[in-house]
Amino acid sequence: MTDQPLTPAAVDALRQQFRASLAAATAAPQLTALKDEFLGRKSGLVTALLKGLGSLTPDQKREMGAQVNALKQEVEAALTEGLAAAQDARPVGAVDVTLPGRDLPAGRIHPLMRVRQQVEDIFLRMGYEILEGPEVEDDFHNFEALNMPPDHPARDMQDTLYLGAPIVGGIWGQHRVPGGPDAQVRAATLLRTHTSAMQIRYMKTFTPPVRIIVPGRVYRRDDLDLSHTPMFQQFEGLVVGEGITLTDLKGTLEAMMRALFGGETKVRLRPSFFPYTEPSAEVDVSCQGCGGTGCGTCKHTGWLEILGSGMVHPAVLEAVGYDPEKVTGFAFGLGLERVAMLKYGVDDIRLFYENDLRFLEQFPPL
Q1: What is the DSSP string of 36-55?
Q2: Helix (H, G, I), strand (E, B) or coil at 179
Q3: Domain range list for the chain
Q4: How far is the C-alpha of 229 from the C-alpha of 278, rounded, in Å?
């Protein structure tokens, strides 16, 4: 059409072409395409006629300019009316499929769940079994079988939330509790103070070798502050078998910490005390903020405390029916919040439980 001379016949032919195309257009997308075809700035058919006016004589330009402008106004008015009618005919609430899609916010894995999955993946690759246990425990599994009888001072460290009266003596199941033959038998239930109770349940059911990890929520009488909360999440590990040594414990912890924090992470063990392990050790990792050179985060020591560990106490093995002369083992426990705080540079444990989207959206999406 644009290669023909600009004449009244050419203008009329384009008008007839537009009217035929308009009659066939029944929906907004077709009308929009028709607008681009005839009025597009670069390749529109009417636009091409307007550009052709420059090659005419002044008299021809006046005559043809009036006809082309009249055609342009006719096309614009018809398309405007058609698009408005198509919009009005659309049912209320209908979706305009011609509109571009809207991005929906992507979900996030909670940082504590992210750390839990990472730890579980590490130990699954090592051949460990993942267990979960009851959050409401009894005194025997939570304390006594872990070498903490009723008068043991280590119970004060746990600061337990009891749901019933504590046992002071008598028989709990088949297990004797100190207090004399006339002591009153009272059922004591409590919110578990650690996931170590599940170790006892597992060892009383299965014979060595044992290789398990136990994640879950635990509860203590802690005030809510920057580094404490009455409910937190713990990860307990236990290995029992023939010939298990402290070297095996240190190698396992080094492998876990390097998988969590990076291959350059250093690990050290310091002597400590836990009633259910002997010897016991606190475990430190090189500071993630300064790489071990010393900074305010690590109080210029280059080290950050992260978990407790040790070799399983012979009394614990005897409580579940294992022979400590034949088998040994190691155990360790770490708080998931502690790991997440070090890994992601979080300085307030309360942020993990306040459900503030501004905090959660800082972590990568799914």
Answers
A1: HHHH-TTT-HHHHHHHHGGG
A2: coil
A3: 8-89, 111-360
A4: 28
- Per-residue pLDDT for 260 more than 60? yes
CB neighbourhood size of 270 (10 A) = 11
Q: 43: alpha, beta or left, given left = phi > 0 and alpha = psi -120 to 50?
A: alpha
Place of tokens 């979080």: 346
What pTM was estimated for this model as a whole?
0.65
pLDDT tens for 189-215 read 889 999 998 999 999 999 999 999 999
Contact 53, 69 (CB under 8 A): no
pLDDT, mean of residues 247-258 = 94
CATH superfamily of the 111-360 domain = Bira Bifunctional Protein; Domain 2 (3.30.930.10)
Number of C-alpha atoms within 13 angstroms, CB side, residue 53?
Answer: 17
**Long-range CB contacts (within 8 A, 24+) of 314-319:** 314/278, 315/147, 316/145, 316/146, 316/147, 316/200, 316/276, 317/203, 317/240, 319/144, 319/145, 319/146, 319/147, 319/200
CA distance 142 to 189: 10
Percent of the chain with pLDDT over 70: 89
Q: Could you tell me the pLDDT band of residue 172, with boundaries at 50, 70 and 90?
A: very low
